[in-house]
Amino acid sequence: MNTMYDCIIIGGGMAGLTCAAHLTDSGLHVKVLEKNDRLGGRIRSFYDEYVTIETGASFLAGFYETAHKLVKDCGMDASSQKDSQETWLYRPTKPLGPIWPLSALKASPSLSRAGKLRALRGVVSMLFDAKRLTTPAITRELKRFDNETVVTWGEKAFGKEAYQNVLEPMVRALFFWDCAHTSRGLVPPIIKGVMEDRHFYRLPSGMSSLPSAIGDKVPHVLNTQVDAVRAESHHLYRVDTSQGTFSAKSVVVASPAQDAIRILTGGSLHCSKSLRAIDYSSVTVGIIKTSVSDDLGVGNRTIVISSEYVTPLVAIKVIQTKSKPAYIRFYWRAQGSLERQHLQRELVNQLTRMNLPSVADAARRGEVVDVVRWDTAIPVFDVGSVTRTTAARFEDGLPPGVFLAGDYMKAPHLEGAAVSGVQAAARVLAHISDRT
Questions:
Q1: How far apart are CA 379 and CA 31, in angstroms?
Q2: I need a surface site. Which of 23, 148, 398, 429 has the fewest CB within 10 A?
Q3: Which ranges of 1-142 would DSSP assign to H, the alpha helix?
């Protein structure tokens, strides 16, 4: 590998691809190294002759400015649609009932009357905080919220019942975040964005078409395992991989956090202590395809599980249409086996315990057609992280030409990944220009 690159990007998720696209557009010679056989990272679409099901990032919110620009730059169009997805709550002591949209909560049996009143107070407080945010002063404003976790704030604002049965399961099911490690400072900007543009956007050919389109524009190699990064000087780095050694003036590590730690401690680099202090939130997402002749009664709505019910199952969604197969998408919070028959048996057992016999029977008859595990780095969301300069925090101790993107920089959703890729590209450009 005698070619000298301006930058090697390790990881072909949205952070790495966005970084590579910006650097390529700026005239730099780059290469993306991806260990898997596909690009996209946490964007993953399951294609079938009847449906396209997203098992990773499933939408672009209206306020995802960087992600929308990526779509436009790739010559694609995102279709707008109101988010009308029903979300129901499973709670052992109550019947199944809706908790989203919030208008459905009023008549829902999921909460007691007192719990609904406390939830309403929490929602009003949350909306008020979000409405006060202004873009020029957002960092200063967020300092007022970036002082406690969502769990401590949520139990005070919503009450324990509403927190456990509305806020916490919704956060887990929608974002795969653990409230105990999530700063309250992340809540107002998300709510503000939803308030300002309630439309959600999807790509007609599936969300995976976005990383595929970016991959057509940037040089990349798949099935390439990176072993270590070695610093020859501040402007020369060697990247040892299963496909040989690559040379570059700079390196962006945009791989999942656990891979980044292995890569940055396997060569001559000295990883900072904060980079090593990592915990993970792991979620397995699977799809069962099954034949169903009768209405299962929970079709096309997401069922989230109350945190008071001890189970690794986070949420399920039954996608059911007339005269076609049904699909059960399940979110499993566990680090056990990814063996498909094992997951299927465990899911059937959980659905039986939850007194959903028709869904359990459909899951038993079906076949697991797709399964993937997402491991999300937690420290980025700790109290203080929203207003702290995360790039400086995690890149402290690394050589001047090595930069981080993805897990360490922003929340694990499409916009956060895209923004961190843009930020990493800016730091690479500054590093390259300093040399010239």
A1: 29
A2: 148
A3: 14-25, 65-73, 113-132, 138-142
Q: Find the CATH number of the domain harbouring 143.
A: 1.10.405
Q: Alpha helix locations (H) across 237-389?
A: 257-265, 273-276, 340-353, 357-365
Report how far residue 425's alpha carbon sits from residue 436's, in angstroms, rounded to the nearest whole number. 17
- Which region holds residue 223: left if phi is over 0, alpha if psi is between -120 and 50, else beta? left
Kindly calculate the radius of gyration of the chain based on its CA atoms and give it in whole angstroms.
22
- 289 and 427 in one domain? no
Task: Please report, in tens digits, the pLDDT of each residue of the chain (436 residues total).
Answer: 578 999 999 999 999 999 999 999 999 999 999 999 999 998 999 999 888 999 888 888 877 889 999 999 999 999 877 655 688 999 888 888 888 777 788 888 888 999 888 888 888 888 877 777 665 555 566 677 777 888 888 899 889 998 888 888 887 776 666 777 777 877 777 777 666 666 788 998 999 999 999 999 999 999 999 999 998 988 899 999 999 999 999 999 999 877 887 888 766 666 655 555 455 667 889 999 998 877 777 777 889 998 778 788 889 999 887 778 999 999 988 767 789 999 999 999 999 999 999 999 999 999 999 999 877 655 444 555 554 444 445 566 678 899 988 866 655 578 878 988 999 999 999 999 886 5
**How many CB atoms sit inside 10 A of residue 81's CB?**
11
209/240 same-domain check: yes
Closest CA to 57 of 278, 164, 170, 209: 209
Same domain for 285 and 156: no
Residue 334 belongs to some domain of the structure: yes
pTM for this entry:
0.86
In terms of domains, do 244 and 389 share one? yes
**Closest to 158 in 3D by CA, of 88, 98, 197, 102:** 102
